[in-house]
Amino acid sequence: MFDEILGLPAHPLIIHFAVVLTPLLVGVAVVYALLPRWRANTAWALVLLSLAAPGAVFAARQSGESLKEARFGSAEGELATRISAHESFATPLLLSVLGLTVAALLLVYATSPARASVGRDRFGRPVTLVLTALTVVLAVVAGYFVFQAGDSGARAVWGM
Fold first, then answer.
1. What transmembrane ranges does the database entry give (predicted)?
2. At residue 61, what are phi and psi to the nearest 5 degrees?
3. First-last CA distance in the chain
């Protein structure tokens, strides 16, 4: 499933979804967390990105494994080192995006407009503050790993 798309290796095509959706998720999550007045306008985008980004990262990871097995299983030397460095960011990226997804969705639920009109958060102010901080921290972590994965992938391909 993750090998080819229309005869082309799937990984170079699929990674673009992860490289676009993950930074969008990071940005929208930070805006939602830190700018309460924007929450009504960004909640829908945060929910959609929270559903799409982990799927894109998972597909990129799986297609990368398929590409490595199919074309680079016997790679040695500097190329193998670059591929290994790139591959080392796949699982931390997936886990950080999944963590960000959970934190962001809980934050949206805790601050949903139905409760905001009453003037109180669903779980109380302390829990909302913890969810806000956790969302921002996980956004930074996911942003770091998506950058590292993309940079190491470009270096692996282009030999920079």
1. 13-35, 42-60, 89-111, 123-147
2. -65, -45
3. 30
Residue showing tokens 């290796």: 9
Does the global pTM surpass 0.85?
yes
DSSP letters, 70-124, are HHSTT--HHHHHHHHHHHTTHHHHHHHHHHHHHHHHHHHHHT-HHHHTTTS-SS-
- Taking residues 63-79, report their average pLDDT: 83
Please provide the size of the chain in residues: 160
For residue 44, name the pLDDT band (cuts at 50, 70, 90): very high
Q: Which two tokens stand for residue 19?
A: 């490289």
Tell me whether strands 8-9 and 4-5 are parallel, antiparallel or unpaired.
Answer: antiparallel
